[in-house]
Specification:
This protein is an alpha+beta fold and 231 residues long. It has ten helices and seven strands. Helix 3 packs parallel to helix 10, helix 4 runs parallel beside helix 7 and helix 4 packs across helix 8. The protein is globular, with a radius of gyration of 21 Å.
């Protein structure tokens, strides 16, 4: 057998292995595993909650303000909350990934704004303008600009961040996420069940639960969406 023939056979074998591996990976992704978490772990007394008056379904999101996938998901969540807000309880839990330089600081900025009644306003700004601060050399200055835009008391805002006043809450969120099996962002739980699917699938599931009276065993549609893992 010539050297050229051996090379061609070797390339063919590598290609076949990669092809088979791709099929296995796709098959695995199309069979998400359902996971249930304790409601006491998913929602704490001090959690950030938007509770609808006629809530039929509870969505808990573990997310990272610097995660690009979380930022991509945010607009769809806003649409869902606008459309079904009175029938949804939405809970946001912090899960800042270690590889994101400003994720924890962003969470602290959101909580510092929340202490002055502007949590959700800061929350939205952090996602809508993620590209502005995520790659900056001084995210704190940008967060302070957001605080001024929201007309916060700057002395109180700065003191809360300088003293790491809300760090214990953020660490509790992280610990609860780990206990619930979270390993990447965004991760969603719908009525206590971990959801593995696309944001469109999440919206379809929520709509189905609302229309069906939040049946406990609604199917989880679609394949898993992209998440960013903690490394």
């Amino acid at each position: 057998m010539t050297g050229e023939a051996k090379t061609l056979i070797g390339i063919g074998l590598v290609t076949l292995v990669m092809f088979i591996g791709g099929i296995v990976a796709l098959t695995k992704d199309r069979n998400p595993v359902s996971q249930t978490a304790d409601q006491e772990i998913l929602v704490r007394e001090n959690s950030n909650v938007l509770a609808g008056e006629n809530s039929k379904v509870t969505i808990v999101e573990f997310a990272d303000y610097q995660c690009p996938f979380c930022a991509q998901t945010h607009p769809a969540l806003q649409v869902m909350l606008t459309q079904y807000g009175d029938q949804i309880t939405y809970v946001y839990r912090h899960y800042p990934l270690l590889q994101h330089q400003y994720a924890q600081l962003a969470a602290e900025a959101a909580e510092a704004a929340g202490a002055q009644g502007k949590y959700w306003e800061m929350h939205d700004l952090l996602y809508l303008r993620q590209a502005e601060w995520a790659e900056s050399g001084d995210a704190l200055t940008i967060f302070q600009q957001y605080a001024e835009e929201l007309e916060l008391n700057m002395e109180e805002f700065n003191l809360a961040i300088e003293s790491n006043r809300f760090l214990p809450k953020i660490q509790q969120d992280l610990a609860d996420g780990n206990t619930a099996g979270v390993s990447g962002t965004p991760t969603f739980f719908v009525d206590g069940n971990r959801f593995s699917g696309s944001v469109n699938g999440l919206m379809a599931l929520v709509e189905a639960r609302i229309n069906q009276g939040a049946e406990e065993n609604a199917e989880l549609p679609e394949a898993p969406e992209a998440t960013e893992s903690e490394e």
